[in-house]
Design a protein that fits this description.
It is built from eight helices and twelve strands. It is of the alpha/beta class and 269 residues long. The protein folds into two domains: 16-149, Response regulator (Rossmann fold); 165-261, Arc Repressor Mutant, subunit A, CATH 1.10.10. The protein has a five-stranded parallel beta sheet, sandwiched between helices. Strands 6-7-8-9 form a four-stranded antiparallel beta sheet, with helices on one face. The longest helix has 18 residues, at 227-244.
C-alpha cells in the first residue's frame, strides 16, 4: 500500500546537496529510507527556516550525528540497515560520549499500534508520529520540542551554567541550566521527559500529582499523549533510581490517583 503524503502540488524537492547550512538555523537530522517522504520533510522544514540533513540509512545518520550533532533528529523506525529503536539508542550513546546537550528525537513510522508507541516513549523519545501524517503538523511538533528544549535558535551558543542547588534534606541535586539531576551524588542519565517528571516531583516532595497533571505540566502536547505514557516514564525513572539506591523507594504510587516523591528519604545510602 502506498503511504499517503500531504504536500502541495508542484512543490520543489530539496536534495541534501542543495541545502546550505546556516549557523543560526537549527539542523534537523532525518533518517528516512523513502525518498518521497524525505523530500517532503526537507521541503517543509527548509521553508520553515530549518536546515534538514537527510540520511537514507542508519549508518549515514550515525556518521552525520558524529560529525555534528543536530538540534533534533527525526528517526524512521523501519530503516533498511537497523531498527529505528536501536538507532535511537546508538545516537543517545554517541550523544553522551560527545558530552554535549541532549539531542531530542522524534520517531516517524508506519506502525500505529499502541505497543510500538509505548516502546518508543519508554526509550525516551520526545514524540511519536505515525504515517500518513501532515508535514506541517510534524514541523509544528518539531518547533514545540525545540522550544521546550531551548534549542530553537540554533545550538552553537553556550551559556555559563549556574551552580547546582541542593534542596534541603534531599538526596537530589537539581542543575536546571544543564538539565541534570544527581541522586545521592550520582548523575542520572535521563531522557527529556524523565527529567521533567523528576524535576517536578523533587520540587514538590509529598505533593500528589495526577497523571493528567503530569501530562499537562511536562509533555509538549498533553492531548496527543495518554496515561500509559506517564506510567511508562515513571517505570523507567524508578529503575534508574533503584540502580543508585536499591533499598530506597523514592517515588510513591497512589493507586487510582497518581504519583508523589517520598518525603522521608534517607540523607545517605
Amino acid at each position: 500500500m502506498k503511504k499517503a503524503l500531504f504536500v502541495r502540488a508542484g512543490a520543489q524537492r530539496f536534495r541534501p546537496a542543495t541545502i546550505r547550512p546556516m549557523l543560526s538555523h537549527p539542523r534537523i537530522l532525518i533518517a528516512e529510507d523513502e525518498s518521497g517522504i524525505a523530500d517532503t520533510l526537507q521541503y517543509v522544514l527548509k521553508t520553515d527556516g530549518f536546515v534538514p540533513v537527510w540520511c537514507a540509512t542508519a549508518e549515514e545518520a550515525i556518521a552525520q550525528f558524529a560529525a555534528e550533532p543536530p538540534a533534533l533528529a527525526i528517526l524512521d523506525v523501519g530503516l533498511p540497515d537497523m531498527n529505528g529503536f536501536e538507532l535511537f539508542k546508538r545516537l543517545q550513546a554517541l550523544n553522551r560520549e560527545q558530552g554535549g546537550p541532549e539531542v531530542p528525537m522524534l520517531f516517524l513510522t508506519a506502525r500505529s499500534d499502541e505497543i510500538d508507541r509505548v516502546v518508543g516513549l519508554e526509550l525516551g523519545a520526545d514524540d511519536y508520529v505515525a504515517k500518513p501524517f501532515s508535514p506541517r503538523e510534524l514541523v509544528a511538533r518539531v518547533r514545540t520540542i525545540l522550544r521546550r528544549s531551548g534549542r530553537g535558535n540554533g545550538h552553537s551558543a553556550s551559556i555559563a551554567p549556574a551552580p547546582a542547588a541542593a534542596l534541603p534534606a534531599s538526596p537530589f541535586v537539581l542543575d536546571a541550566e544543564r538539565m541534570q539531576i544527581r541522586y545521592y551524588g550520582r548523575l542520572l542519565e535521563l531522557s527529556r521527559y524523565e527529567y521533567g517528571l523528576l524535576k517536578l516531583l523533587v520540587q514538590r516532595p509529598g505533593r500528589v500529582f495526577t497523571r493528567d497533571e503530569l501530562l499537562e505540566l511536562v509533555w509538549d502536547d498533553a492531548s496527543e499523549s495518554f496515561d500509559r505514557t506517564v506510567d511508562a516514564h515513571i517505570k523507567t525513572l524508578r529503575a534508574k533510581l533503584r540502580a543508585v539506591a536499591p533499598e530506597v523507594e523514592a517515588i510513591r504510587t497512589l493507586r487510582g490517583t497518581g504519583y508523589a516523591l517520598n518525603e522521608e528519604l534517607p540523607p545517605s545510602v
